[in-house]
């Protein structure tokens, strides 16, 4: 499970908590703070929890930064983190800052809630479909962007992608990672979700497998479609076996929710989230009878997800 | 304040949370885990909170350790952390492990409680006395122990301390740091404490000053006595200005609670804790009228605290 749920001593309430921290992966400190916060909150949202009562911020400040770098970068990261927390209706009270060789940022999200406020992830049934709320390929996009300054690497992919494509994909990845899964969490209630997880470090298939493993019913997940940030599928392929994006193993940061929904509600879910947020969600697979495993079919359909700016406009 | 207190949406309850992590300072991984946990819980105990509803463990595993080292050290540290959590009546559900250049261990302690379960730290009044529940000098002891293998350093202190003294002081420091402040927290209620803090990275005077600063009344803290692990005052002096132990600035890890208590209750508090735990607490200062500052008098009395083993026996 993405968060731990602990029954409390007080009348039917449960403590729902999660923690996560990450190393920098975008060059904008403010956006990095937002991403770190969205990444922590995402574990609550995967349980359909919409309220976060408190956040702690955990910061490791690199002892290799100059004073000047530190004074510029750290406050921006902290502001990004706090702004994202506020966007989620929460706030940051407490935390710790330490010196560390590597820069790290993360936090703890905690909520105290009644049983009807969260959705256990283990109720998928045969006939459900799987919805994904953010495109894949964030790590590929982040790496490709870094390679713009590394001719040796860049030469490997420049036949399949233009510099402009890479810059757009990177922007799309950055905004996607900083976007909260909160609306998705709310709609899980409205459309009777049977369980969800968020897609992060283990990639789509890793998290789908983990979700399949905990199911109460004898079900399996079969994934047919892979929505991927435009051109990143080609970049992934050009890099050989490096990312394993098509195999579902490419790492994501602050990825989408993967949600098992009743078939007849899934389309409405996708329509609703797009209407509210201006971002698409996709039906990517089905729930079959099976032995609690997940797989991607042999030749999955790649959905090229165009880069959009912050306001949802196509570039 | 040592923990953050956040009002909840549910009937009068508050969320009390704290987080802390540290770098290794003893050579026993199991004890290191216990110390890290005791250090986190201590922030709750400083508020008189006795129940911890959940703990998260945050682990940074050094990428410089060999596989063998990692496989031995990490499970021991985790067991120590979990055992200390259980000793505190809590348990560890959740957390995160990441690779990091430095080994780090820490966690998050969370409790949901009613207003009568915690004691705000800001009610000291003129005439109160200050009690300290663990001896000072943990950092000096840990450093002196490391210097046994560094002739250059050892030569600087060997005139004032024997190898045997250092080994005993180190053991005492290790057990002291791994001891929970839970009994002290319980007795804060019994003896009507007016506020407390725990003594850690800023040293005795740093934390006393922080506590003085938040007081509602116009008071100041004056410290007359310094209970210090036996011989460590001499070691501190022999090191010149390095530790500033006598000035109250020597860093402590998982130190004692510094508690403002009504004068007529303080002696009973000290007697009670010694009866229950076999470890002394000391009246170290007084609360005077003043401008919310703290100081140590010019020539404070040093109380040499003998080394004891785990069962409280004098060596």
Report what the structure shows.
2 copies of one chain form a homodimer. Chain A is an alpha+beta fold. In chain A, 36% of the residues lie in helices and 27% in strands. Chain A contains 9 helices and 11 strands. Chain A has helices at residues 29-45, 67-87, 138-147, 151-157, 163-178, 182-190, 203-213, 232-238, 263-277; strands spanning 4-7, 14-22, 54-62, 92-100, 104-113, 129-132, 195-198, 219-229, 257-261, 282-289, 294-305. In chain A, the strands form 2 sheets. A 6-stranded mixed sheet of chain A has the order 7-9-6-10-8-11. Chain A has a 5-stranded mixed sheet with strand order 1-2-5-3-4, covered by helices on one side. In chain A, strand 1 (4-7) and strand 2 form a beta hairpin. The first copy, chain A, starts with a strand and ends in a 10-residue tail after the last strand. The model of chain A has no long low-confidence stretch (mean pLDDT 94). The interface between A and B is medium-sized, with 34 and 34 residues.
């Amino acid at each position: 499970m993405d968060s731990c749920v602990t029954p409390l001593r007080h009348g039917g309430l449960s403590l729902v908590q999660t923690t996560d921290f990450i190393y920098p992966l975008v060059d904008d400190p403010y956006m990095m703070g937002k991403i770190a916060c969205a990444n922590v909150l995402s574990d609550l949202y995967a349980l359909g929890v919409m309220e976060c009562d408190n956040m702690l911020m955990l910061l490791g400040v690199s002892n290799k930064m100059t004073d000047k770098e530190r004074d510029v970068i750290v406050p921006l990261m902290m502001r990004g983190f706090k702004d994202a927390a506020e966007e989620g209706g929460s706030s940051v009270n407490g935390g710790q800052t330490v010196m560390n060789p590597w820069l790290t940022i993360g936090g703890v999200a905690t909520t105290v809630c009644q049983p009807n406020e969260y959705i256990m992830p283990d109720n998928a049934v045969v006939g459900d479909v799987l919805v994904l709320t953010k495109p894949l390929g964030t790590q590929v996009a982040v790496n490709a962007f870094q390679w713009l300054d590394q001719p040796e690497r860049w030469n490997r992919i420049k036949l399949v992608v233009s510099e402009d494509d890479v810059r757009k994909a990177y922007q799309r990845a950055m905004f996607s990672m900083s976007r909260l899964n909160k609306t998705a969490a709310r709609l899980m209630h409205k459309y009777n979700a049977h369980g969800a997880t968020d897609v992060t470090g283990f990639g789509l298939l890793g998290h789908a497998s983990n979700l399949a493993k905990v199911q109460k019913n004898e079900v399996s997940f079969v994934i047919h479609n892979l929505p991927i940030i435009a051109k990143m599928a080609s970049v992934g392929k050009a890099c050989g076996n490096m990312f394993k994006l098509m195999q579902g193993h490419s790492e994501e940061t602050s990825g989408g929710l993967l949600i098992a929904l009743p078939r007849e509600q899934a389309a409405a879910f996708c329509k609703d989230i797009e209407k509210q947020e201006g971002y698409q969600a996709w039906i990517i697979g089905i729930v079959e009878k099976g032995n609690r495993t997940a797989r991607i079919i042999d030749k999955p359909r790649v959905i090229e997800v165009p880069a959009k700016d912050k306001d949802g406009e196509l570039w």
